[in-house]
Amino acid sequence: MSSMFDNGVPFHKMQGCGNDFVVIDNRSARVPEADMAEWARKVCRKAFGVGADGLFFLEDAPADSGLAYRWHFYNSDGSRAEMCGNASRCAARLAHAIGLAPERHSFGTDAGPIAAEVFPASGLVKVQLTPPRDLTLDIDLSLDADILRLHFVVMGVPHAVFFVEDVAAVNVRKLGHDIRFHGRFAPAGTNVNFVQVQDKGRMLLRTYERGVEDETYACGTGAAASQIVAASLGLTGPSAALTTTGGETLGVSLEDGKVFLQGAAELTFRGELFPRALGLSGD
After folding, report:
1. Confidence (pLDDT) at 78
2. Helical segments of 197-262, H only
3. This prediction's pTM
């Protein structure tokens, strides 16, 4: 008997400031939630799969929820994430493009509803992120023989923020890994942002992402976390532009206790993937 695993599954490839994602419209693909983590690991694998920082599935929202749709988001290692800022912009733009949502809409994530506005002419998307939680300033973290002054905030997902004089000189893979797995942040671990403040309205940002376990070209919730901490310390004003590793700029603004993230979201290509070729199988 044939099944969906004998046929191609349509997908879209999106990127937001270099943070790239595979997107599957699960209204038609109908991948069971129990299988999604394995799909993420194998589809996101470079060379053997499509290759991406993460994979998310779009589905209809529950009736009477007031949401246009919901997503299931997974990092490339198969771990499920509550939220991803760059992916949220990609989700909003694609959902609008395929007729799943209007330009202004809200959708469901594990971190709560996300409000989005799509600007089709420019390719920009603005999202209102979930409220920050557990803001903790001035954490002295013992690492090897050094004491690092870090800050922490949860933007749907946990983020450590470390201000440096020269972000280009940081060994993000090594230091990010050591902070991510430090006992202070166990058991969940944390994303790690290395930030260089240029002036009251501009910063440079490099991020080590939990789940990807490496530096990525950009991290939307990391940009938001960095701006929240910087503004709390008086290093920036209520709005700032953060230039990411990929050279793109993310805008973060703090307005009446709300956090907004704006940046580009682009469809890079679409196609079909063949689950059996990726080692995925099903009944």
Report:
1. 97
2. 220-232
3. 0.87
